[in-house]
């Protein structure tokens, strides 16, 4: 063998290093031309920033197996043109596009259309992160659903526009159109300043997207919304594959029926991850989660502050019930003493 190490073996090593930190590939590529060639093949993620934008065609040629492209926050001009470059590049395995832009940026609608003209991207794109695009509207959701029917993860964000211009919002109509076409959808995240969706959106997602595993609703304390306990209850009871529920709502509209949120928690038997704010949970609610005995791996409770003594007993009960499965516990904005932490531990 004369000490020769095949390229395939080096690829496996570089892939493992990439899993720990893809930036390690930059250093490896400087060792030799051979390592440069191998590291180019195993690089899967590309961050496009303003200072490297002019190099994009060369970078896409250099890294033929890119799976994820992140559009950096410092890019604020001609996003459509940038996306068009990606679409025409011949990227073979692009599966994720993420926009980390300034909130004022308009959605690159022409860029989306250009991406969909590339049949490989249209067929393989699974993740579209629009959390950097704050001007999303119903027509954008319809466009995304038409262009990328195989999406599995979608992240949406709206600004704090409270005007009466319905056309400038995301409403139930847009979500319903989206849900009716994205049959492969597994994760959806809404981050809203002013949110105009109602229970109808949650019911449509739960009914149409049978593979749905994660729903995340984050609505700021200043933003209005029209989600009630009934919508949450419907999702938990009818989404059989749901394993992650994140409800960062600083208020919740009351149910038209009694104990709807109690019903939802009592039926949360499959959840691996649960995030809730103090307005949505009490000692009684925590005990209902315990009764459901979900295999929780991640639990995040936000903003309880001085309310901790009221739920102390229920929380201890929950931690005991999940001691074999719980891997991550986050208590954010809690007034906990060393004694309290020791007690929970």
UniProtKB/TrEMBL annotation:
Q: Which residues form a coiled coil?
A: none
- Superkingdom, natural source: Eukaryota
Kindly list the biological process annotations in GO that this record carries.
SCF-dependent proteasomal ubiquitin-dependent protein catabolic process
InterPro entries xrefs: LRR_dom_sf
What GO terms fall under cellular component here? Answer: SCF ubiquitin ligase complex
Q: This protein is called what?
A: F-box domain-containing protein
